[in-house]
Write a structure and sequence with these properties.
37% of the residues lie in helices and 16% in strands. The chain is built from 19 helices and 20 strands. Helix 6 packs across helix 16 and helix 14 runs parallel beside helix 16. It binds flavin-adenine dinucleotide.
Length: 631
């Protein structure tokens, strides 16, 4: 059949961001024939855009740091809803993964005595982010790609074929996972350039597809992030956990309209940038929540002293976790104290010397100059919240990263649980290294343990092909335009499932989503199969809609405010809800939702926290059990 190219691998990794590349390296190191598939150009992924750095308790900048402090910061940031085991593995293994990158050739910024330098970030008690100026993700991807090339060269020396055990398929989109007897048997997709269909037969698939932000109008995410991995997993029978938790990054650009949503890195605040409203007030001092009062400065003087003397002063509230800062900015704008274009002011110009700004924040300097004609060494930036990161994702076993579907693994942003209700900045780059490696390792192990490779049924291939081709017609007249549907969906999600939520609006969103679902059937696109973005979007829309449904359903169900989920009508954090994970799966053509207990944190991890802090999050019963076990 000339319409399809059939390929056979041991492990297929969908996604070429940090998680995917790290997984592929590990699978190849375990001797497995591995494919890496990337929807866009190889080397272009959100990981590249990561600016601030990768969090790892190496203790280089402050020797008091260790995995236990990092663990506590992560759990606090996630408001105790994180999967304890993922957060534990992450905090323990992140330093090793960073040092290992150096052996692959990474060049991090240095301390005076030659160690990897670490910078401050919101929610992290000590300077903890390993970084390369504000271009850390670029270095991370460069290094991982370099490692891949070096492995390919080894294979060439051995076999005469660079791609003997590690092949990259760029601009290739997976649209369906293939299952046989409930187990992974492969993945089906198309090549962007010519529309050629490809079938990858493989017993193990690693999802590393990143986020879902493109379903929102104002977002830091780029075009690829239509929640493909989340949707593929659900359709294959895996579960998504806690999709209501989305991170609205507090500082996106707000002006000009064409760049609205583009990220302004948190390092701007980590390095001394302050937030002010139109009255010139550093308003974050008015928004320190009770649970964080003990850790943050209450006066500007103390906050300012902290930058030079962190051991004897508390950090400024500009460095509260992102959910807190985003909500505060939202409130200031709503109260009429916003900047001219509907944001607030973020200022480094009055606090840092121009040469320091240019050295430490080169990309930000460039970004504002080029896109907004603002010189950040001379004037403040205007910023506001932007949809940035999804904490919810595929429910996985923490150690192996395997989902409920045998042979299906997930790592990086597409996986859920690690960050609880809110992710700390810098914890994503370390997350994707730690769990990317584990995904590759356990996928390889799974292949070793699979005696017989499941064969892909021809009928499944035919069905996948027919589904992909449905929207493509000679004449699209009379059909729904995919761009119109996407635009309307983005607006609905932004307006009704955005940073502040209410039951009636979420219900309205679900009615609209049900309509989008119906409209999907009549989306039509003209033109051929060669490089046809309209056709590609028509396919992606199915993923965007099902993921949006999961987000809206979970957001309606959770009647409390926690981390990246804020309910106007249920403003408080409720200790009873802390015990509940919301699980989404696909049933028929809809998303079904159920409650599931949050795995219980073992006593040796709970005991890392002061009792007074636990009392802010746990129920009376849980506290009594804690007291009993520590007697
Ligand atoms: P990504 O790097 O997002 O890669 C996903 C890959 O999957 C891509 O290759 C994509 O093409 C591919 N893909 C998607 N769908 C398909 C499909 N259907 N078929 C085939 N391939 C597919 N985090 C930090 O820790 N520190 C930071 O400083 C930081 N800064 C950030 C700045 C910006 C602007 C953004 C957007 C994010 C930032 N983050 C940061 C978050 C972090 O970068 C991401 O969460 C992380 O890089 C996700 O990595 P990943 O490997 O899971 O996926």
């Amino acid at each position: 059949d000339k319409d399809i190219t059939r390929l056979s691998y041991d492990v297929v990794v969908i996604g070429a961001g940090g998680a995917g590349l790290r997984a592929a390296i590990e699978a190849r190191l375990a001797g497995k024939k591995t494919a890496i598939i990337s929807k866009s150009l190889f080397g272009k992924a959100h990981t590249v855009m990561a600016e601030g750095g990768a969090a790892a308790a190496m203790g280089n900048a402050n020797s008091n740091d260790n995995w236990m402090v990092h663990y506590k910061d992560t759990i606090r940031g996630g408001k105790f809803l994180n999967h304890y085991r993922m957060a534990e593995l992450h905090a323990k293994e992140a330093p090793e993964r960073i040092w290992e990158l150096e052996t692959y050739g990474a060049l991090f910024d240095r301390t005076k005595d030659g160690k990897i330098s670490q910078r401050n970030f919101g929610g992290h008690e000590y300077p903890r982010l390993a970084h390369v100026g504000d271009r850390t993700g670029l270095e991370l991807i460069r290094t991982l790609q370099q490692k891949i090339v070096s492995l390919q060269q080894e294979d060439f020396a051995e076999s005469g074929d660079y791609e003997a055990r590690l092949a990259v398929f760029a601009e290739t989109t997976i649209t369906e996972l293939m299952l046989t007897d409930g187990k992974v048997a492969g993945a089906f997709g198309y090549r962007r350039e010519d529309g050629q269909f490809l079938l990858f037969e493989a017993p193990a698939v690693v999802l590393a597809t990143g986020g879902v932000g493109k379903s929102f109008k104002v977002t830091s995410n780029s075009w690829e992030y239509t929640g493909d991995g989340h949707a593929l997993a659900m359709r294959a029978g895996a579960n998504l956990v806690n999709m209501e938790f989305l991170q609205f990054h507090p500082t996106g650009m707000v002006w000009p309209p064409s760049v609205k949503g583009i990220l302004v890195t948190e390092s701007v605040r980590g390095d001394g940038g302050v937030l002010r409203n139109s009255e010139g007030r550093r308003f974050m001092f008015d928004y320190i929540p009770e649970v964080f009062k003990a850790q943050y400065a209450t006066t500007e003087e103390e906050g300012d002293r902290w930058y030079t003397d962190p051991d004897n002063n508390k950090r400024p509230p500009e460095l509260l976790p992102r959910d807190e800062v985003a909500r505060a900015i939202n409130s200031e704008v709503k109260a009429g104290r916003g900047s001219p274009h509907g944001g607030v002011f973020l200022d480094v110009s009055t606090r840092m010397k121009p040469e320091v700004i240019i050295k430490r924040l080169p990309s930000m300097h460039h970004q504002f100059k080029e896109l907004a004609d603002v010189d950040i060494t001379k004037e403040p930036m205007e910023v506001g919240p932007t949809c940035h990161y999804v904490m919810g994702g595929v429910e996985v076993d923490p150690d192996s990263t395997q989902s409920a579907v045998p042979g299906l693994f997930a790592a990086g942003e597409v996986a859920g649980g690690m960050h609880g209700s809110n992710r700390l900045g810098g914890n994503s780059l370390s997350d994707l290294l730690v769990f990317g490696k584990r995904a590759g390792e356990y996928a390889a192990l799974y292949v070793d343990q699979t005696a017989e490779r499941p064969a892909v049924a021809q009928s499944d291939v035919d069905a996948a092909m027919a589904k992909a081709l449905t929207p493509l017609v000679e004449d699209a007249e009379g059909g729904e335009n995919p761009y119109t549907v996407q635009h309307e969906l983005q607006q609905v999600m932004n307006d009704l499932v955005g940073i502040i939520r209410r039951a009636d609006e979420l219900e309205e969103a679900l009615v609209k989503i049900a309509e989008f679902k119906k409209r999907l059937a009549s989306v039509r696109v003209g033109g051929g199969r060669k490089y046809n973005p309209g056709w590609h979007l028509a396919i992606d829309l199915h993923n965007m809609v099902v993921v949006s449904e999961a987000i809206a359903k979970a957001a309606l169900e959770r009647t409390e405010s926690r981390g990246g989920h804020t309910r106007d009508d249920h403003g408080k954090m409720d200790p009873n809800w802390r015990k509940i994970n919301l699980i989404c799966s696909v049933q028929g053509d809809g998303v079904s939702l159920r409650r599931q207990p949050v795995p219980t944190m073992p006593i040796e991890l709970l005991g890392l926290f002061d009792r007074s802090e636990l009392a802010k999050y746990l129920t009376e019963d849980e506290l009594a059990a804690f007291d009993e076990s520590t007697k």
